[in-house]
Amino acid sequence: MNFWLPASTAFLASALEAVEALTVVLAVGVTWGWRSALTGAALGVGLVALVVVAFGPAIVAAVPVGAVRLIVGIFLLLFGMAWLRKAVQRYGGRRALRDESAAFARNVASLGAAHQAGQRGALLTAFKSVTLELLEIAIVVVTVGGSAAGGLLPAALGAFAAIALVVAAGAALRAPLARVPENALGFAVGVMLVSYGTFWSGEGLGLAWWRDDLAIVYLAALYALAALVCSYALRASSRAASASA
Amino acid sequence: MLALWRFFAGDSRIAPVGIALALTLAALGVHFGYDQRLVAATLTGVLVATLAVASRE
Fold first, then answer.
1. Is B54 within 8 Å of chain A by CB?
2. CA Rg value for chain B
3. Among residues A168, A172, A165, A197, which one has the least CA distance to residue A82?
4. Domain boundaries, chain A
5. What ranges do the domains of chain B cover?
6. Is the Cβ of B16 closer than 8 Å to some Cβ of chain A?
């Protein structure tokens, strides 16, 4: 449990973010050439690695354990609630479902139209996208793994595995990974992040969870059920609103 | 600052308020020595309610 839960949470979250970054890098590569795309991506990776190595362990080491758990829990709740809310809205019909093919087409169109931006603009686009997505991955790894009994290693391994898988698939296919079940992944990741956030913030406040080891499991089951009910209720109210219109 | 906030919290106004309320109630419950199961249920319940309301935003 100490290995697989953080590893699988980090894997799923990282896979989702990596797919989004890949879509933009592919769009840049197809429109402006692979040199801009890969250079921008490499710069993004370098910057995030520097930030993580420089600040990650220092922050965790400098703050008392209880405070770290509370801060980590708050970050996870904010992040997770944003993801879960969007997933509920997508399944409830209030927000468009993720579609990497459409996102790819949009990116290609806007990059193709931005003639003045040139190679530098294309490189910056790839750099920005990779940096932002990798920062999100780093935050998930540090928060999910940082306060866990197993440490950062399971979450880091999960993240690396996901990124390697997505990069390999992208290099092989040279096309957006449209078949990845992103909406389901977003739902699962949102549930896990909110569950971790609830657990760690509670521990940070001095709360002792019932059946400590299993707490994240039953919290995840509760949030998954709640999110499904919310999605169903949203969909029902959308149908009722369009029927009466 | 707004961009940084949006990066972490997304575009919901209700979610951060609900999270703050949940944590405040939990902190008060722990501080005043209420039953741990009640505090845990309150924390989780307010977060579930936050999700329900924020998803309709």
1. yes
2. 13
3. A197
4. 4-236
5. 2-54
6. yes
Quick one: angle between helices A100-113 and A118-146, nearest 10?
Answer: 140
Chain B neighbors of A198, CB-CB under 8 A: 43-44, 47
Q: CA angle at residue A169 from A168 to A171, to 5 degrees? A: 65
Q: Can you tell me the ipTM of this complex? A: 0.91
3-state secondary structure of B25: helix
- Quote the DSSP letter at residue A213: G
* Inter-axis angle of helices A4-32 and A100-113, nearest 10: 40
How far A82 CA lies from chain B's nearest CA (Å)? 5
**Residue B25, min C-alpha distance to chain A (Å):** 11
How do residues A42-84 score in pLDDT, each as one tens digit?
888 888 888 877 876 676 666 566 777 888 889 889 988 988 9
A211 conformational bin, left if phi > 0, alpha if psi -120 to 50, beta if neither:
left
CB contact under 8 Å between B15 and A82, yes or no, is: yes
- Rg for chain A (alpha carbons), in Å? 19
Q: Which among B9, B18, B55 has the least Cβ separation from residue A92? A: B55
pTM over 0.90: no
